[in-house]
Amino acid sequence: METELRLLWVAIVAYVLSGSVAIFGLILKRRPDGFVLAAMAGGLLLHAAAVALRWDRLGHGPFVTLFEILSSNVWSLTLIYCLAYWRYRAVRPAAAFVMPVLFVLMGWLMLSSPEEGHFPVTYRTPWLYIHVGLSKVFLGCVLIALGMAVVVLLRRQGLALGRLAGLPPDGRLDDLAYRFMALGLVFQSLMLVSGAIWAQDAWGRYWAWDPLETWSFVTWLLLAFALHLRLTLRASAPAGAWMIVAVFGLAFLTFFGVPFLTTSPHKGAV
Amino acid sequence: MTVHAVAVTPGRRAVRGAWLARAGSLRLTLGILPLLAAGVLAAYEGPAGDYATWVLVVPLALLAGNLLAAVASHPAFRRQGALLVFHLALLALILLVAASRLCYLKGTAEVLSGGEFAGLKDREAGPWHRDRTGDLRFESLGFSIAYRPGLRRSGTENRVRWRDAQGIPREQVVGDQEPLVLDGYRFYTTHHKGFAPVFSWRPGTGTADVGSVHLPAYPEHEHRQWNEWRLPGLAEPVWVQLAIEETVLDPAGPTAFRVPARHHLVVRHGEERVTLRPGEAARLAGGELRYLELRTWMGYAVFHDWTIPWLLATCVLAIVALAWHVRCKHFSRPWRPEAQAEEKGMEG
Ligand code: HEM
Hints:
The structure holds two protein chains of two kinds.
Chain A: H1 2-27, H2 33-58, H3 66-87, H4 95-111, H5 126-156, H6 161-165, H7 170-203, H8 211-232, H9 237-261
Chain B: H1 2-23, H2 26-45, H3 50-73, H4 75-79, H5 81-103, E1 105-112, E2 122-125, E3 139-148, E4 152-163, E5 169-174, E6 180-182, E7 185-203, E8 209-212, E9 226-229, E10 238-244, E11 255-256, E12 263-269, E13 272-276, E14 281-284, E15 287-304, H6 308-330, H7 339-347
Antiparallel strand pairs in B: 1-2, 1-15, 3-4, 3-11, 4-5, 6-7, 7-8, 7-15, 9-10, 10-12, 12-13, 14-15
The structure holds protoporphyrin IX containing FE.
């Protein structure tokens, strides 16, 4: 366990370094993109090693305890963001806003106990990987959109003009952000359906309005609302950006608020 | 005549078209989606029953109407085939969910190991469900449940036997992720299981009858292992308690669910009180009660809903269509930030 934890802490240091350099880059109007990307990727590799060691030791993946769920989400969200960072140069400065969101999860991770949990018998199915994997891609898509939304909103407030002013215009950012929102809807729909299949197998009901199911469905409706609002009222880029913030906020609360406020994530889960 | 028809028809059509466009307005959708979200939250937080049904049914019905009108009237659907399929699938989903609520059955059953399924214990069903559980037959041949240290349940295997449509006996191991499916009814094993003393009862004159009493679930109600039942011909109920004289499930290490080898029963009937071990009998006022053996019973969650495969197929269709639409509309052209902005960005 010692080695796992040590690897994890070094990975977190790399992430924090990456995020901090992105923030300073924005403030000081520098372009430290190469360093930010390298630190992020290095952190991901170390973090992957920590997760793999733990997986091997316990015989199950990071799906059970708060520590494991936070750790796997920090990893998957950073991975998805890292890919977007590498692929879309124009949105790189948004790392200064996205990484702090991940810092929140990292801080929480450091405060949680790395003790082993009980791997429920209902988790012994490929649906675990499918359902959890899809949910991570969904949240990753909305996180990427969030980065662009924050740029639009800050520009609208007249803040951080320097490097942000040089980015593509709001309309273009809005276009890219909503590509990821639409993609997010596909993955969220897949996540809901795979969860229902799993629930039917495991508990004999495909849907029972438990807290997580209810809030995920409300998030799905909000995402549909955001897409429709943009099309129907030809919403301006800032209005679209606020909708992205709302969808991300609700998705974040559903993922990380609901499971830890109720005794078990899904009613009757264990 | 002809002139008259030509003059009226377009007018009607135009009026109908205007109504359809109004009913299918996307502004209306923007009102209904939050209404549905509010309905979901109200049903979740509020009291169950009719209230929970109506706060969901009303927005879903509005959504279906709005969707249908939009599909019939909105030009966007003629231009974008995949988007049309997606929204039609959403409409089909609403109808299927309504059918599901009208026709489903949810219940519980308890079956003695070595005994036959003899009907549901509790049930809840839609008004259109034709209950055929009375015709179902299967036998539970017993089960095993493994526990990891700390009494963590790790696997349930329940052997069951039933006859297929040709009358051929079949055996299957069900449990955890695998239900027994009989005539569309799905029987899922649950953590609800326990012990059942088996008795024979011979009234004063007459032949002996064999029956069992299911005690409360174990280990969930470890300290409440008693129950009461009525014997044929006796006015007063008989009360029985299982006294276990050993540790059945030791949390210290890996273990398995089993019938305790050392135990006895305490039986009370009116003022009489007797202690029985397997094979022993007690004379009660009115007959002889013999304790034959201790067995187990398994609790099942029972579910029937013919819409499930249709719901799944419709969801798959909806998502494939949505993915196709997203690909065509959002990801078919490369995203190029304006060249000028890109350059500025580089300098920044
Ligand atoms: C009453 C309900 C609904 C109606 C009448 C409706 C109607 C429409 C129409 C007409 C469009 C095309 C708009 C255009 O291209 O100008 C559209 C787009 C869309 N709708 Fe709906 N819709 C409804 C419900 C939903 C729901 C519940 C979802 C759930 C996710 C949804 C997801 C979408 C998506 C993803 C698009 C495409 C967005 C885009 O291309 O960016 N719709 N809808």
